[in-house]
Write a structure and sequence with these properties.
The structure holds 2 protein chains of 2 kinds. By secondary structure, chain A is an all-alpha fold. Helix content of chain A is 67%, strand content 1%. Chain A is built from 6 helices and 1 strand, in the order ααβαααα. Chain B is mainly α. The longest helix of chain B has 24 residues, at 118-141. Chain B is globular, with a radius of gyration of 17 Å. Chains A and B meet through α1, α2, β1, α3 and α4 of A and β1, α1, α2, α3 and α4 of B.
């Protein structure tokens, strides 16, 4: 049941990305190109998503358990550190180069576009490389510092 | 800056955004999680993944979305200007960056901002600024 609702959420999210036009990298680049002919569409996608999402999180935040009875696992991390800013900036450079972020890339993969397949494969390789580096780093420093708690965004 | 009124699609952008918001709200209320796509995908690449079923189900939903969408209308044409080497570099940067910074446009940009998380607001400013700067360099300095 839990996985079924996750599937529905993914499906609805993907349809939203298709309706919004954000699966098309040209639309994203059009937003990021402030100095050119600017397409503000992405800002309205964010505004629409945040308006509805905020209601969902407001209700979810007042509950101890989900509607399915499972525990609420919303992120608890509050640290604003170098990792957050450097990671965000590295992601932003890749986003600006391709016009793809993870969600639209996976939807474009479903459309079957060869460039989306290549981008997604490289993205997963990058994530895997990160996991391997993290594991090496934490195994060498595990006795010195405990792993950070909470789930990530 | 000048707004390109020929490509600006305010109504479909708002409607698509609202649908994304519905997905985020459903996932929070039924699954108790933020809809962070890089985190959901990255979690599948861990050596032990006891929670792989819901992660795979969510990503499967994203990937089959074009099939469901096609029942109503044709998916939009994709214009991907970047060449293959650039896409490989960009993909690696997006993969490493989103995991190192614990989130992407969905986790920090939509969910974090919806939750008024200062941490996510900072991350969103960081990737937006880097995205603006990158496109400025590739479109106005290098070209």
């Amino acid at each position: 049941m839990y996985a079924l609702f996750a599937f529905v959420a993914g499906l609805v999210f993907g349809i939203g990305l298709l309706v919004s036009g954000m699966v098309n990298p040209a639309k994203v680049i059009g937003f990021l190109d402030l100095a050119g002919q600017w397409d503000p569409s992405l800002a309205l996608v964010m505004a629409g998503a945040v308006a509805i999402g905020a209601i969902g999180f407001f209700v979810a935040g007042r509950r101890k358990a989900t509607i399915l009875g499972t525990p609420m696992l919303l992120p608890t991390t509050r640290a604003i550190d170098r990792r957050l800013v450097v990671g965000g900036a590295v992601f932003g450079v890749g986003w600006g180069l391709a016009g793809f972020c993870p969600g639209p890339a996976l939807v474009a993969l479903g459309i079957g576009h060869p460039k989306a397949i290549v981008f997604t494969a490289a993205m997963l390789a990058g994530m895997l490389a990160f996991e391997c580096l993290e594991r090496m780093r934490t195994s060498s420093s595990a006795r010195l510092e405990p792993a950070a708690g909470g789930t990530s965004e | 800056m000048s707004i390109d009124w020929t490509t600006f699609t305010p109504w479909s952008a708002l409607a698509g955004g609202a649908i994304i918001g519905v997905a985020v709200a459903l996932f929070a209320l039924f699954n108790g999680r933020v809809t962070g796509i890089s985190g959901i995908a990255g979690g599948l690449l861990r050596p032990s993944f006891p929670d792989w079923t819901w992660r795979a189900a969510f990503l499967g939903g994203l990937i089959v979305a074009p099939i469901a969408y096609r029942l109503l209308k044709a998916p939009p044409d994709l214009t991907i200007a970047a060449d293959y080497p650039t896409l490989v570099l960009a993909g690696i940067l997006v993969g490493v960056g989103t995991r190192y910074g614990s989130g992407c446009t969905s986790g920090h940009g939509v969910c974090g901002v919806s939750r008024l998380s200062p941490r996510s607001l900072v991350a969103t400013l960081a990737f937006m600024a880097a995205g603006f700067a990158t496109v400025f360099v590739t479109h106005h300095i290098l070209s």
